[in-house]
Each structure stands twice: as C-alpha cells, then as structure tokens.
Amino acid sequence: MTQNRDNPTEISPPGGQQKTPIGQQKLHVEQQPLGDRGNFNADYISFRDYSFYYGATQVLFDINLALPERQVTALIGPSGCGKSTLLRNINRMNDLIDGVRHTGDLLIDGESVYNPYLEVISLRKRIGMVFQKSNPFPKSIYENVIYGLRVAGRRRKSVLDEAVESSLRRAALWDEVKDRLHESAFSLSGGQMQRLCIARAIANNPEIILMDEPCSALDPVATGKIEDLIHELKNDYTIVIVTHNMQQAARVSDRTAFFYLGKLIEYGETERIFMNPENSQTEAYVSGRFG
Amino acid sequence: MKRFFDEELNTLRSHLSLMGEKAVEQLRTAMTALIDRDAEAAQTVRREDDILDDLEVKIDDEAIRYVGLRGPVARDLRLVVVGMKASHDLERVGDEANNIAKRALRLVDEKPIKEYVDIPRMAEMAIEMLREALHALFEGDEEKAVAVCRRDGEVDKINKQLYRELIGYIAEDPANTTVAIELMFISKSLERIADHATNIAEEVIFLLRGKDVRHTPEVSPE
Q1: What confidence category does residue A290 fall into, taking pLDDT thresholds of 50, 70 and 90?
Q2: What are residue A241's DSSP bridge partners?
Q3: Interface ipTM
Q4: CA nearest A230 in B: which residue?
Q5: Mind giving me the DSSP string for B151-198?
Q6: Does the pLDDT at position A86 exceed 50?
Q7: Residue A75 within any structural domain of the chain
Q8: Is A161 an 8 Å CB contact of chain B?
Q9: How far is A96 from chain B (nearest CA, A)?
C-alpha cells in the first residue's frame, strides 16, 4: 500500500492487484483548503483498522478510510462488497441486527461512534439518511418535513413553517409543492418523494447525509434533479453515497472508494479513479468489465 | 433541464473561442511582420505561440475529463469531440502563423522581388474563412459552415497561381531563389490555414447535423 504523493489522504496499491494489506495502513490526513468554502477536515469520518461481522461472517476487512468533510464520497463495488454495510455503520444502523460486531474504530470529527458514553440517538440526529426506495411517512408533505423537529419537541408554528420552507427549498422541491403542503406525501411522484425525504433529513440540521442508492428507482430526469441537489448540498453537508451507477459516482462525487469482497481496493479523487485508476480490478469495474 | 456540470461545457466553449481569437491575431501579426518588414511583430508571434499550445492542452484535458466523468451523449458528445478537433486545427493555425513569422524575419533584410498582392489577399481570405468557421461554430450556423467549405478552392487556386509565378521569378534570375522559396512556403502556410478553417467548418456541420460530411460532394469546393 502506498500513499499518493500528491494527496496524502489517497491510498492505492503500488501496482495492479499486488497490493499489501490495507489494514496495516495508518492514514496521514491534514487540513485542506476547500476553495471559497474555507478549510475542511479531510479525516472527518474515519475508519481505523475497521472490520465488521454478521455473526461468524466477516463482511468488512481492516478498512482504513478517511472521508473528508463537506465533500461527496461515493462508495462503489459489486453487490456484496460491503459498501452498504460500511455506510450503515456510520450511523450505527447495523446495531439493530442481532449478532453484529466490529473491531477497530470509526470516528466522526475525531470522536468514536462507539464511545460508550455516546447516545446512539444523538449520533443519529447528526446524520440524515436517504434510502434506495423513498420512505415518506403516511402524513402530509408538511408533517413529513417537520417530523424530526416535532419529535425533538419543537412546537412553535413560525419555527416549523420556516423549517418546512427552507428545507424544501434546499431540496429543490419548494416550487413544486408550496401550494399543496398539506396534501399527502404519497401524492408526490417518485422523484419528488425522494427529494421530500432529503428535505426531511435536512430539516433536522444534520452534519452528514448518507445516501444508499438514492436514484436507483428514479427516471433520468428525477435522477438528474437529485444529482444536482447532491452537488448543491455538499456546500453544507458531508455526503456519503452508495451507488451502482458508475456514471452517477463519476458525476456527483469528489472522492470514490472501490470495495471488493469486503476490502477497500482503491480510494482517491473521483477524477483519478475514473480516468486513471491504479488498480486493475478498479479499472475493470469502472469500465463495466467486472463485477 | 440545466445540470450543474453544464458550466464545464461553457468553459470548454469559451476556451475554444479564446483560442480562435488568438489564432486569428497571431496570423494577422505574422502578416504585419511580413508586409511591414516588422521584426518585432515576427518575434511577438514566435513568443506567443505557446499560448495556443497551452490552450490546446487545456481543451483536451477538459474534453477528456468531461467524457470520463459526465458521460455525454448526442450533441454534448459531439461538442466535446468537435472541441478537441477544432482546438487541434487552431493550434496548427498557430504553427503556420509561427512559420510565416519565422520566414518574415528572414525576409526583413532581403530585397523584395515583387509587391505583395496575392499573399495579403490569401491571408485575408484565410482569416475570413477562419472567422466564419468560428462564427458558425459558436452561432450554430450550418449555412455559414457549408459556405466556408465551398471557399477552400479559391485559396488553393491562388496558391497554385502564385507558385507558378514565383517559379518564373527564379527562372528569370536565380538571385531571386531565396526570396521566392520563402514566399512559396508562406503561400503554402496560408493555403494550409484555409484547410484548417475548412476542417473546422466540416466539424461544425458534424456538430449540428450529426453527420460526417468530409470528402463528400456536399462540401466540395466550388
């Protein structure tokens, strides 16, 4: 395993498939400029020698990965490679499954998500999640957006109204629904429902948004809108997206991590991963010749 | 629907436009160097050739990145391909302008064998073709592009005519050989610049129509 000379947060094998075990690697990361968005923490979400097991089955192997703040990181790889497991461990959603365990650590902004003093609920408040299939609640558009705020005890109407408008605007949905806020969320199209779910996530003012194949059930126009939205949202949120769509990963992400059989094969700037990957497995996968 | 990466295509377009303007400027300066025996102008052309080289590399990078990351199809894809090809043509125009400037520098102290008539005329035609081809590209004007293709023969004709005339000067007095040969090369450079303008015009037709018209009667010179 070697570190990329130009960017110390990039890791890639020294050539072809002859790579050394990833678990040995400690990543060096540093503050990096983010253009007019100030500085960002390049090691915002940090997997350290991280392994994960469903019962006796190990699904992630010694992952060392530093995901930068306020950028979009795409996790790609064939089915069963562990990318969704990795994503769902960021907000400890996999804890809900019996018999799971991990070794190593996972930190957000320097703090372990496994800190015994950390309440999982408070962790999840910091992390919004958008799923493959949109999952609005059987409530109005308005109530969907403020659901989290209501749970948190916010009641003042002006605060809730403002949250609804700003969240729907940020999710590029306001103009389409502003005159029907009290209609059922199920009256929306698939693409609109997915943007509503994004608005619902944003309303809670999270730091991170996790997206698990958010466009796989959408048509190209709806997909385009979500992709443009992701591009906008990265100004304020750290976004991690799992996608099977190579073009989508290439279009929306700043960095890409390729997984295979539970191992991190290559990670780096999306432009490099798609234009000039160092690993032959990565090249075969992004070219559609493998996986 | 506007996409967040549309701006990248606009950047590619504006670099191409910048390159077109610079190529025309280089050619004009090279002609000033020749006609006014202006060594400083010739040096300027030689010095500034790098600008076109750099823009060609930049446009190639942008185009390859766009294909790799944005997955363009249809007209977007054709624009990226045409952008790369047109930038190559414009870089070659710059090379020809550089060649003319180099020869103009050699001719500064040489006694002229005739007044410059055909060469400035060819240069004006080549510049006009180049400008029209670039307008056709940026305005999406197919008629203009076809018209440029049809004019290519005019420059070829003057080039051949001038070639014969210069051979005559050499036959008349071998002392004219050096100057005549330099002028033949300059004439050839101008003829090539017109060819590059024609290439760009053919690329514009491909961009607009999605059909490759090269080597077809549709765009044959009149």
Answers
A1: confident
A2: A74, A211
A3: 0.73
A4: B4
A5: HHHHHHHHHHHHHHHHHHHHHH-GGGHHHHHHHHHHHHHHHHHHHHHH
A6: yes
A7: yes
A8: no
A9: 37
**B4 — contact with chain A (CB < 8 Å)?**
yes
Give the bridge partners for A60, in sequence order.
A52
Number of structural domains chain B divides into: 1
Q: How far is B70 from chain A (nearest CA, A)?
A: 5
Q: Hey, how many other C-beta atoms are within 10 angstroms of the C-beta on B30?
A: 29
Tokens 């130009």 belong to: A6
Is the Cβ–Cβ distance between B206 and B212 less than 8 Å?
Answer: yes
Distance from CA of A201 to the nearest CA of B (A): 22
> pLDDT tens digit string along B42-94?
999 999 999 999 999 999 999 999 999 998 999 999 999 999 999 999 999 99
* Residue A51 in tokens: 């392994």
**Of B1, B3, B65, Cβ closest to residue A275:** B65
Q: State which of A190, A205, A220 marks the end of a domain.
A: A205
Domain membership flag for residue A2: no
Cβ contact B68–A250 (<8 Å): yes
- Per-residue pLDDT tens over the stretch A49-72: 999 999 999 999 999 999 999 999
Q: Which two tokens stand for residue B53?
A: 């080289």
Q: CATH number for the domain including B206? A: 1.20.58.220
- Distance from the first to the final alpha carbon of chain B: 42
Among B86, B96, B84, B110, CA closest to B155: B96
Question: Are residues A114 and A215 both part of a single domain?
Answer: yes
* Contact B69/A at CB under 8 A: yes
Give, for B29, the enclosing helix (H) or strand (E).
helix B6-35
* B117 contact A CB<8A: no
Q: Are A258 and A76 in contact (CB under 8 A)?
A: yes
Global pTM reads 0.80
A199 lies in the same domain as A220: no
